[in-house]
Amino acid sequence: MSAPTPVTLTPADTAWPASLAERMGSAAPTALQAVGPVALLAGRKTALFCSARTPGDAILRAHDTARRLRDEGATVISGFHSPIEKECLRILLRGEQPIILCPARAIAGMRIPAECRTAFDAGRLLLLSPFIASPKRVTRDAALRRNEMVAALADQVFIAHLAFGSRTARMADMLTRWGVPFLCPR
Fold it and tell me: What is the C-alpha R_g of the chain?
């Protein structure tokens, strides 16, 4: 099956999320590319962040949280990039709730991952990217920008583990400035 053609959203579109400009200011993306039901952007969203270096107890909490969000029918937004986030995506895909998957790369030409096809066909999966033409591959900078966008779109955030001085700790500071509630169990 060929890759679906993305739709480009700009601040002039009715589906454009106002929280991007409100929270990110001049750092907000000037356009987004989307594949799937953009109406998912209008609902309440919970962001999920799990760093690749996460202790075992935090991994279990992340899995438990993914199950709870799935069972509650909550819309979950994430890059689903780290190994733990990928496991959480597998848990979420077994549910019926909406999922917003945000790759840290341009999505033009990107195929819907096979494990996501059923959710996509059911109209409950949206691919969303702040990158229009590049990068074609994930970079550290692209992942940081993507994570900022995900946080700016979220109504609440779950962080599986927060290490002192980490990029995730800087994100928690940003969430505090923006007034976005976040949970980071200890």
Answer: 15
Cβ atoms 84, 52 nearer than 8 A? yes
Domains of the chain (ranges; CATH) run 33-183 (3.40.50.450)
Contact between 1 and 156 (Cβ < 8 Å)? no
Contact present, 32 and 126 (Cβ < 8 Å): no
φ and ψ at 63, to 5 degrees?
A: -65, -45
pTM score: 0.94
DSSP string, 66-134: HHHHHHHT-EEEE---SHHHHHHHHHHHTSSS-EEE--SS--TTPPPPGGGHHHHHTT-EEEEES-SS-
Q: For residues 15, 130, 87 and 168, what is the CA-based torsion angle, rounded to 10 degrees?
A: -110
Q: Which of 63, 123, 60 is nearest to 96 (CA)?
A: 123
Report how far Cα 149 is from the mean position of its chain's Cα atoms: 8
pLDDT digits 0-9 by tens, 68-127: 999 999 999 999 998 889 999 999 999 999 999 999 999 998 899 999 999 999 999 999
